[in-house]
Structure formats: structure tokens, C-alpha cells
Amino acid sequence: MANTYLKFAYRNLVRNKTYTIINIIGMGLGMSACLLIGLFVYNELSFDGNIPNNDHIFRVNEYMHYNGTAPQVSASIGFPIAKFLKDNHSEIESYTRIFPYEPLTLEYQGKRIKTSQVICTDTTFASMFNIQLLEGDKDNFIRSRNSIALTQSMAQKLFGPGSGLNKTLLLRTGDTTMYVVVSSVMADMPATSHLQFDGLLPIPESTEKGYLGKDYFTLFNAAYVRVKNNIGINDLQSKLNATIHTKNPSIDIRLQPLEQIHRGSIDINNDNFNFKKIDGKYVTIFILIALAIFVIGCVNFINLTIAVAGYRGKEIAIKTIIGAKRIQVILQVLAEAFLSVLAAMVISIVIAILFLPLLNQIINRDLKAASLYNPYIISIYILALAFTTLIAGLYPAWLISSAKISKALKSKVLFMGSRASLRNVLVTGQFIIAIVFVTGLIVILQQLRFLQQKDLGYSYHQVVRIQLDDATAAKLPVLRNELLKIKGVKDITNGFAELGGNGNLFGVKYVAPNGESKMVSANLENASPNYTDFFGIKIVDGQNFDKDSPKNQYLINEAFAKKIGYKNPIGKSIHLSFLPPGFIKGVVKDFNYSSLHAKIDPLIISSIDNIPNWQSQLYIKVTTVGISSTLKNIAGTLKTVSGNNELTYQFMDDHFKEIYRSDRQAGIMIAIIGGLTIFIACMGLFGLSAFVVLRRSKEISIRKVLGATVIQVITSLSKEFLILITIAIAVGAPIAWLMMEKWLQNYAYRVQIHWWVFALSGGISILIAFIAISFQSIKAALANPVKSLRSE
Questions:
Q1: Is the dihedral of CA 144, 147, 152, 153 positive or negative?
Q2: What's this model's pTM, rounded to 2 decimal places?
Q3: CA quadruple 122, 149, 196, 118: dihedral positive or negative?
């Protein structure tokens, strides 16, 4: 019986080739988009899901609420905090801390491997994150001060396929060398782990016993805790806050679940260990987009199926007369839906495989095509096939099977106008979604253009940025002199904070105008005296640093001056953390030292040259003439002075493109999906226009016999659809406005959504829809009216 239904279904689909192809392609495109989005969403939701009992592991974040500044959350905390909390709370089972080791070279029997992905950690790291040890055991995991644990990929680079256990490596960093012994070889961290590294070193004794070991203020390392079973996290957090307030009353503890770190840290500062993190709202948005595309695909299928069925009046009537029951007609239509959905699903898998590399390039991921046909996914395909067949085929099947035989035999048309309302609602719904996508795309492109063109308060064009290690930063005077000898180098300066980054928060003590001693939290930039001249930053009050003795002098921005409450802050004393007291030398005009996602917070600029780590950002201004030669000479000088081949340069223009990469990725994805949505919606409109032309064929013929022109007929047919699209614009525009207003709230500096955005998106939708309608309208207007009236 099933074979019979499938055989007849196949014949009917072949008989209406054009509609069948449109139906299958429309559904296939929608399914392929859902597949690719599904792969992306599954990948993002699976981060850190491989660790047993991961619901007991939390990252310890620091919520800072220093007087006079907006609260901030930091993923880096003071070094002794994790141990202090563990010692005072039995609810915490264990803790581990991590912080990056500076870039180094590992050497074994003449083979050298350079890496910046080695981190320092506690011995509890292996048990905390369920590290799989291929060689060695957890009892001996980096227990010795001169031990190192390597990942499998790093061990293979150094030792080849043989064992790496207990082998001695020479570790070089800057001018320092030391020997370390491989105590463990670990399996590489899964691609869906927020922690990625090449090796692990024990925490240096100098860190634990030095000033950092007692410093609860300096943001130094990330920390994780594992809590015991049946612990109320909110209650524990309150207890932890009470404990930490005995050391620093201006911070609170925020326990962040492990599985939320990857997609829930977009507003967290100093998030140094978060592999390819993403804003979690985009995951939710893409889930909704996938559902919207699926709905559009099903609506298209329904409309096109009904349009084709309109021509099958005689066939259905004869089947009913010779004894076919209603359930048999329904099964026949469902069989046709099943074959169409099956063909669309096969096409969607092929399209998904072909476009997966492009998706990986856009979203900076490494999604595997093999994921599309593993056993688990295949079972989902089977369920999706059955579900989609019922969703897309049941309404047309019921509609076709309920047609009146007498009318079908007389007109060869199954149904006339009584079923139009639901179809119009479905098509209007499609275009509401399309309007939202088009409007969203326009706003996103506006915001991206705004980010690229906004005056940041400083000039960074033709500026090369180089991240220095501590050893090279210590040689900065020599490096600066050598670089200035290069033809094409105009000027050089250096800094501490990464422009466009999250900044470096420090506590600053000062005396308020009322004589009260206060502390304010401010971002620190440590720069050479020519920093403001180099970037063209305006000094609005006071003077720049004295070039001879700037160490106890500070520049502040207008936001800092406003916070401390002085109309004339020049000469006022301020005390920065552990440094000797100094005074305010000048006030610079506010500039966007962070990204445009954040407002301008208080900033203090120092000029201290005896802390190498505070001189890690080197900026070189170059001319446009002979730039290739200039860059080559810069690279050569860097290598000669530093002895480090790993130092690389980057133009600041490219640096800022990276900062807003996720915004551009979202824009590209919305553009592609928006275009696809419009295309699929227009295919549905094409199907509905075919149905309307069929329904009104007699009316059109009579109009033409009575003298109606081709233009009048096209206008008459198009008016109905344009009304639907106008309704879609009226409903979709407010929805789009609400959604994009919420998205723009992520930016401290943003565009305004003007009326013309909705006019443009509506105009684009009307134009594209009119093109889709025109084919059927023109065809009907040019048809011979005698053929249509002959059947009366």
C-alpha cells in the first residue's frame, strides 16, 4: 500500500516539475540554514560540557565597586583570594589558579619550539578539569618547581612519536634560561573548552611568597573553585562576600558557573582565558532565526502545495467517485509531502556541507562536516522528516480532501476564495519576519560604519603596534634608538594598556575638596612623555609630562577630573596603588581608550620607565612611502635587539577591525540570512500569486473581454499582495525597532534609528515582492481569455 502511495506521489510531483522544484529548493535552502545554525548553536552550547560534575565548578569573578566609579566585573582577581576563601569555607572542596607565563622557547636536542600558550597553575588543575593524562600520574602532576606538563600536540612537536615523560627541556624566556622536566603528557583540551594551552608550569615560589602573595587588590590571576554537593550558591556567595570584605571592602565575589563562561562573559573585564568567547544573546538570536526560517519554509510548502492542488480538481473528484475515502486522499497528499521533504532534506545536507567552510570562515570556528551525519544527527533527521511532513503536509491534505466534488468536476478547480484568509496570514507573517531581518541588517551596517568612522579622540592611522615581552621592554631605550634610524619611521611611543581593550584598573587615593581622603578606581595607561603628541590627544588644562623627570607626574582625563570634584585639579596630590605619591600635571580631553561598547571611564596616565611590563605596547608611526621596506627593516631590528622571532607587528587599523570582529560577523550572518529569508518568502509569494491567478482566471478573462488593458490587469492582481506587504511593514517595523534598540544598548556610542530605515526596508521588500508577483501577473494578463471562458 505504501509503495502505491509513493508511486502516485512521485508521478504527481513529476507532472508539476516547476512547482516541485521551487518547493524542494525553498524547503532545502531553509533546512540547510537551520542545519548550519544548529551546528553552530550546538557547538557553542557544548563548551565545557565534557567535564564530570561541571555544575559544581565555578570561576571566581571579582565585582569591584570602588567609590566614585561604575561597578565592574573582572575575571582576574587578587592572587591570595582563592586560597583565603578555601581556608575559611568548608563548602569549597578545592581551588585552582591560572595566569599566563610570558612567551618562551622550549628546546630539546637542538629543536626549538616557541609558544605564548604556557600557563602557571596549581597542582589541583588536573583534577579540577578532568585532565586526561597520557603519561605520568595525577599524584606527580607539576609537583616539583622545575617540572612541566605538556599537551600531546606540543610533546609530539618536541619529541616526535616517542615518549616525552621525564625528559629534560631547556626553557628560554628573554635573557633567562632554566631546565624543566616533563612530569606529565596530557591529551589536548577539547575544542569546546574555554581553556586552551600548550603546557602547564607550577606557580613560581616568588609569586607565592612575594608581595603578590599578600596583595588582595591587584588583579593578577583567574581562579576556579569546586564546591561540595547540595550547596546553595547564593548563600555561599553571601558568606564569601562577608569574608573578602575583611581584606577589601570594595569588592564582592561572583561565582560564575563553568558552562556559562564561554557565552556569558561578554561584559566581564580581564577575561584572559576564554577561547573564542561569544555573546550569549547571539546564540539565542540564531536559535530564533532558525525557527523563523523553518516556519517560512513550511509556509512556502503549504502555499505552493495548495497552489498546485488547485489544478487537480478533476483528478481528486474522479478518485472520490470511484471509491477513494477521505483518509486515502489525505495519505496521498502526505506521501507527496514526504517525498518533497525527503528530497529537500538531502539537498539541505549537500548545501550545508558545501557552505560549511564559508561559515567557519565567517564565524571563526572549526565546525566539522562529519557532525552532519553521525548516528545521533541521523536520528534527528528522521524525526525532523516526520515532523516536517506532518506540519507542512497536513493542512494542504485536509484542505484538498474536503473539496466539493460537484464544484471540482464543473470547474476543475478544487477551491475558490474561501480558504484565502489563512494563506494571506501566513504570507504576511513571512514578510513580517523578512522586514525584521532587512531592518536589522540596515541598522547593523549603520552601526558598523559608525564604529569605523567615529572620532575616537586620537589618531591611529599609519601606526604599527607591537606587543613586547618583558625582556624586550627592558631594552626599550636601545630598541627605540635603533628603530628611529630606519627610513620611513616618523615617531615612536609606548604604552601599557591595549588601546581598544578593557583597560587596567587601579585604586587611586586622593583628597576630596572637603578634605576627606577617598579612593577612586581608574584605568591606568603608562606611557612615554610623547604619548599625547604621538596620538594627537588634546591637553585641555595644565601641561604635558616634563621630559626629564616625569615619574611622579600624572595626566588625567576629563572623566577623572569630574569624579574627584575639582574645577582646577592641576597640582593636586594623588597616590596610585603601591607607587610613591605624585601630582596631577595636566588634563587630557576624553578619548575612547576602550572599545565603543563602553563609555569613557576615569583614566590616569603615568610615565614610569622602570617597570618593563608597563611598557609592553610599542607604537611606531610610519610613512606611506616605501612601506614594505620600512616594515621589513622594523621586523629585522626587533629580531636583532630582542633575539625573539615571535614578536610581530600589526597596523592599528587592523587591530580595531579585530576588536569589532564579532559585530561584523553578526552583520554578515544577518545579511546572508536576511537575503535567504527574503528569497524564500518571495518563492512563497510566487506560489500564492499562482493560486490567486488560478482562482481569478474567469474574472481576468471577463475584464479583458470588456476592454481592460494589460497594465490594469497587472494592477488588479498586484494590489492584493501589496496590501499584505503593507500590513507586514506596519507590523514588522515596531518589532524590528524594539529588537534593534535592545541590540544597540550594548554600545555606549551608537546610531539612532531614523524613520527612513523602515521606509527603505519596506521599499526593498515591496520591490522584491513585486518582481516575484509580476511573473504570474503578466502571464495572466497576456493569456487568451477565450481559453479560460471556454470551460464555463
A1: positive
A2: 0.79
A3: positive
